[in-house]
Amino acid sequence: MRAGVVFWVVSAIALLTACGGVNQVPLDAPADAPLRIPELLEPTYDSEGVAHYDLSIGRSQHDYRRGTLTDTYSYNGLPVLGPTLLLRAGDSVVISVTNELDEVTTTHWHGADVPAEDDGGPHSLIEPGEAWVADFDVIQPAATLWYHPHAHGLTAEHVYRGAAGLIIIEDDNPAVAALPATYGVDDIPVILQDRDFTEDGQLDFAIDEGENGNLDGTITVNGTINPFVEVPQGLVRLRLLNGSQARIYRLGVEGAQMTKIASDGGYLASPVVLEELVLAPGDRAEIIVNVGTESASLVDRALGRVLELRPDASAVGTGVLPDKLTTIERIPDSEITVDRRFHMDDVRNFWEFDPTWAINGLQMDKSRIDVRVRFGATERWTLSAGEGQHVFHTHQTQFLILSINGEPPPPEDSGWEDSVWVNADREVVIVARFNTYVAEDIPYMFHCHILDHEDLGMMGQFLVIDE
Ligand code: C2O
Ligand code: CU
Ligand code: CU
């Protein structure tokens, strides 16, 4: 057996014996539900060539096969989640979001480089019955992003109930033209979310104030429990999104090779063959799986099988993996003008019972600006943590990792990122440019993407000042 196979078999045995409370799917149990593929929302173009998209967030119901329909939130009336937005680099887009819930919410374009007033953060509240319109130019390269509500204190619950969707940006980079790219056929969205259900089949939302946030035992993929998807033999692309509240996945592929081709912000310089891929909340990764004549499975070290890829013998994919995907120009140290440190920790006083999650000792205050970045600056941020698991996410910009615990990042972590896993044993130094939009009125957010921590106050605000 290959080392990777041994690793996964050992892991599967370990989890079967160790974690009694987790409803993991053993690798030898059949996958029994066809994977839901969120519908694609292509734009309508107006006479000026502007791409228009309409979203509405509201209540819905989804059949999780829990003996009853489960109440959910979703976009555009889908049973759960939202349609996948297909954006093209260079387009001007207008997205309207109507709030059909009976409570306030927002919709944020996670990973998108957009003006602050179009970012959909906690300051862009949409009252029930109202609509909000974002308009921006797509100024970044091909990538897998996502959208989700971001009203402070409500983000975890709105996402948990099903409000989230993928954004795919396409561009005309010729190096990747031969990659599998037929949505839902050989280019498969994979939104990973762990969930718990009450006895009457409803979503059992909870905030866990602890170090790890709320971890649930049932893995859903695009809202499907124990799914399989039929794919052509040959190369298949999976667009992985960790849309979970708090769970960090350790993913592998059984029965085929896994090659990472893209991180949060787009393509890596070159494909990287991996045994294990760590995906923290908010993270995306695109992987290529070379499916043979037998099924291959995406598996998680703790939860077992996530998704079975079932080859359809009558279809052979035509995708080809190039040696080089794109050019990533490292940001030279000489360009860095500002250093900052962001320390993520529980800062409760000794007489307090519950954790107080904070960044640099402070909890989110919508009326306080924490950081003023000068427009055009290149900044180096050192991300560290005390207690707990954290995912540092910043709005507006994509960054490069300079080091993890003082070492240069491995090739799979050397692309553009907007979210990165940080804990006491994992100090990460990043570098980012702030040269696209000035934001002097409405701030951008930086925060922990473990949604429990975020809602409990582990968030701060920055402006981009032109002076
Ligand atoms: Cu995915 Cu500030 O968010
Ligand atoms: Cu974001
Ligand atoms: Cu955290």
Shape: globular
CATH level-four homologous superfamily name of the largest domain: Cupredoxins -  blue copper proteins
How many angstroms does the end-to-end distance come to?
62 Å
Q: On the 0-100 scale, what is the average pLDDT? A: 94
Class based on secondary structure composition and strand pairing: mainly beta
Bound molecules: CU-O-CU linkage, copper (II) ion
Instruction: State the CATH topology of the largest domain.
Output: Immunoglobulin-like
Count of DSSP E strands?
A: 32
Main sheet summary:
12 strands, mixed
What features would you describe in this structure?
With 467 residues, the protein is mainly beta. The protein folds into three domains: 40-173, Cupredoxins -  blue copper proteins (Immunoglobulin-like); 177-316, Immunoglobulin-like; 333-465, Immunoglobulin-like, CATH 2.60.40.420. Helix content is 6%, strand content 43%. It has three helices and 32 strands. The chain has helices spanning 3-18, 155-160, 451-455; strands spanning 33-34, 40-41, 44-45, 51-62, 70-75, 84-88, 92-99, 108-110, 131-137, 143-148, 165-170, 187-195, 218-221, 224-225, 227-242, 249-254, 258-263, 266-274, 277-279, 284-291, 296-300, 304-316, 338-346, 357-359, 371-374, 378-385, 390-394, 399-404, 419-422, 428-433, 439-448, 459-465. Strands 1, 12, 13, 14, 15, 16, 17, 18, 19, 20, 21 and 22 form a twelve-stranded mixed β-sheet that branches. Strand 17 and strand 18 form a beta hairpin. The longest helix is centred in the N-terminal third of the chain and has 16 residues, at 3-18. 50% of the residues are buried. The structure holds CU-O-CU linkage and copper (II) ion (2 copies). Residues 344, 388, 390, 448, 450, 453, 458 line the site of one copper (II) ion.
